[in-house]
Write a structure and sequence with these properties.
Blueprint: E1 11-14, H1 30-35, H2 37-43, E2 47-50, E3 54-55, E4 67-71, H3 78-90, E5 94-99, H4 109-116, E6 128-130, E7 150-152, E8 159-162, H5 177-192, E9 197-200, H6 227-233, H7 237-247, H8 249-252, E10 255-258, H9 268-272, E11 280-281, H10 304-318, E12 325-326, H11 336-340, H12 348-359, E13 364-368, H13 389-400, H14 405-415, H15 462-474, H16 479-484, E14 486-490, E15 497-503, E16 508-514, E17 520-523, E18 532-537, E19 543-545, E20 548-551, E21 556-561
Parallel strand pairs: 1-2, 1-13, 2-5, 5-9, 9-10, 10-11, 12-13
Antiparallel strand pairs: 3-4, 6-8, 7-8, 14-15, 15-16, 16-21, 17-20, 18-21, 19-20
Helix pairs in contact: 12-15, 13-14
Bound molecules: 1-O-alpha-D-glucopyranosyl-D-fructose (TEU) and calcium ion.
């Protein structure tokens, strides 16, 4: 694998709507982000990805874009964005925007023109098919947010258009070269402005099976099938992606990170190999542990053993082919600490342990806002307190299969995307210091205990633990091993102990965590006769003597082994 400028960095995702509100309208904004750049630099962040800030009707929180060339007034102006890029540069922080091009908004002018003249050039920008009342729809795919992927084209009783996501997110027709030209032009326009690159949304969905009129076996009682099934059969996405990369990213040496679920091992090199179409992709394997085709109500809690095995499987299959990005959460997931740490064990120490086990893996650590504080899921008091489209769909599903409202709320609260979207907890003042107005989404009541002000500069805090991990990753003495060392799991048969070596040229690093609620002593014979120096410890006393490692309950330690 060729070395790249970004490999040794630490990245951070901002969900702008919920990060910091600079003008009291209850919505986070770009000036708010700029005002916090010093703190991000202090933490050690060098790559910053912003979820979408383009003009949007917000049917899906900005993932429905009505103008790719402008900033939504709720978030600021184009000048603010330019300023963010420039201020980032001054602090060694590369700014990455979200590239949402599987679909746009039904309020984008392309879609409006397509509605005016479906048989004209803009009709070809979308997937529009004839259909008559009473007929079967063109296919039986289910939107990711529930219901059919087909809806009537506004103003036309005899036509339907395709949307894999919300009906306000019509899919763009990537088979049409004219559409692709428009997309490339837009990408280059942003890169020319000084943007470092993009996180690329839902990109695998751009290639559909053809013709579109083929049904798949139903995977639920509604007779529909998830588009995920169709994606297994769709061929040729890599050709499209390479064309996009050639025309845009490669010319600019842009950093690109794709949201790509269910990649096949044999395709990995074409995505993130040296000649791949992206810089990196996220490891999402952990986020789908125990996922059920039936929906959230049917999903079982994640066991530490499942977490460990899934992480190791991904590390092994990626190997040296490319560089993955490791996360414990993002804006589409519930909080990692609430998901991967068993109920009742969510202590400060346990949160650091989980953070460390993920951060020290081979790959780019990608933190999500609030992760560095140990922010947890929110106890939403009612479904009305939840805004997210997919959560509302899952809630209805729960009721449909017979759960009562309280049970349905419990399920949805556990998995809701809004868990990651509650406002950032800056301090213990009103609204957690996020806004002086009324926040667009409730603030997690835990802000009194969990907030940035009480952790920054405080010895032993989760924030300071993350800061030391980031510093360690940049430390000349260890950098090469942490960034490029091979991941080699050990003690795999020790239940609820997650341990791995990072094998480097200068040294080996041992990362070990004890998910058990009691102390553990394990033996790693190769440590005999070697010295183990503690580089990081989440608290408590630990010993590595004569090949034996003693850990307290929920203790996580990083050792240098020489
Ligand atoms: O997500 C795409 C995606 O496949 C997952 O979001 C998942 O299916 C969904 O979250 C179900 O809960 C991306 C964005 O990250 C997400 O926020 C957008 O809603 C989606 O694309 C549409 O743009
Ligand atoms: Ca604002």
């Amino acid at each position: 694998m060729k070395k790249q400028w970004w490999h040794g960095k630490t990245a951070y995702q901002i969900y702008p709507k919920s990060f910091y509100d600079s003008n009291g309208d209850g919505i986070g904004d770009i000036p708010g982000i700029i005002s916090k750049l010093d703190e991000l630099q202090e933490l050690g962040i060098e790559i910053l990805w912003l979820s979408p800030v383009y003009c949007s009707p917000m049917a899906d929180q900005g993932y429905d874009i009505s103008d790719y060339y402008n900033i939504d007034p709720r978030f600021g102006t184009l000048e603010d964005m330019d300023r963010l890029i420039a201020e980032g540069k001054k602090r060694g922080i590369s700014i990455v925007m979200d590239l949402v091009v599987n679909h746009c908004s039904d309020e984008h002018e392309w879609f409006k023109k397509a509605c005016e003249d479906p048989y004209g050039p803009y009709g070809q920008f979308f997937h529009i098919l004839p259909w008559h009342e009473g007929e079967k729809l063109p296919n039986n795919w289910r939107s990711y947010f529930g219901g059919s992927v087909w809806d009537k084209l506004p103003g036309h009783d005899d036509l339907v258009y395709l949307h894999l996501f919300h009906k306000k997110q019509p899919d763009l027709n990537w088979e049409n070269p004219a559409l692709r030209e428009e997309i490339y032009k837009m990408i280059n326009w942003w890169l020319d402005r000084g943007l470092a690159g993009f996180r690329i949304d839902a990109i695998i969905n751009i290639k559909k099976t053809t013709p579109l009129t083929i049904d798949y076996p139903a995977d639920r009682a509604d007779g529909l099938c998830s588009p995920g099934r169709m994606l297994q059969d769709a061929v040729g996405v890599v050709d499209l992606l390479n064309e996009m990369a050639d025309r845009t990213f490669r010319k600019h040496q842009a950093f690109t990170i794709a949201e790509l679920f269910n990649w096949r091992k044999e395709d990995l090199a074409s995505y993130i190999g040296d000649e791949g179409c992206f810089s990196s992709i996220f490891d999402f394997a952990e986020t789908v542990i125990n996922a059920s085709p039936n929906g959230w109500y049917d999903q079982k809690p994640v066991e530490p053993e499942q977490y460990k095995q899934t992480v190791f499987d991904v590390q092994k299959s990626v190997g040296d082919v490319g560089y993955m990005a490791n996360i414990i959460e993002n804006h589409d997931e519930s909080r990692g600490v609430s998901r991967y740490i068993p109920e009742g064990e969510r202590s400060t120490e346990a949160k650091k342990m989980l953070g460390g086990l993920s951060f020290m893996l081979r790959g780019l650590p990608f933190l999500y806002q609030g992760q560095e504080l140990g922010m947890e899921n929110c106890a939403f008091p009612s479904i009305e307190a939840i805004d997210d489209v997919s959560s509302r769909d899952e809630y209805q599903r729960c009721l449909k299969v017979g759960l009562n409202e309280e049970e349905a709320l419990k399920v949805v609260s556990h998995y809701s995307r809004d868990n990651g979207r509650t406002p950032f907890q800056w301090n213990d003042e009103k609204n957690g210091g996020f806004t002086t107005g009324t926040p667009w989404l409730m603030v997690n009541p835990q802000y009194k205990e969990i907030n940035a002000a009480s952790q920054i500069g405080k010895e032993g805090s989760i924030y300071e633990f993350y800061k030391s991990m980031i510093a360690l990753r940049r430390d000349d003495r260890y950098e090469d091993t942490i960034v490029y060392g091979v991941t080699e799991p050990v003690l795999e048969d020790q239940k609820d102990i997650m341990a791995y070596f990072r094998r480097g040229e200068k040294q080996d690093i041992l990362v070990i965590g004890n998910f058990r609620d009691e102390a553990a002593e394990v033996e790693i014979p190769e440590l005999k006769g070697k010295t183990c120096q503690v580089l990081l410890n989440n608290g408590g006393t630990c010993m590595a003597v004569d090949g034996k490692v003693k850990l307290e309950a929920l203790q996580g330690v990083v050792f240098e082994v020489k």
